[in-house]
Amino acid sequence: DIVELVDEAGEFVARGIYDLDTSIVIRVVTRNADEAVGPELVTRRVREAADAAGATAIGPRAPASASRRK
Question: Which of 35, 45, 50, 69 has the least CB density, counted as fewest CB within 10 Å?
Answer without folding.
Answer: 69
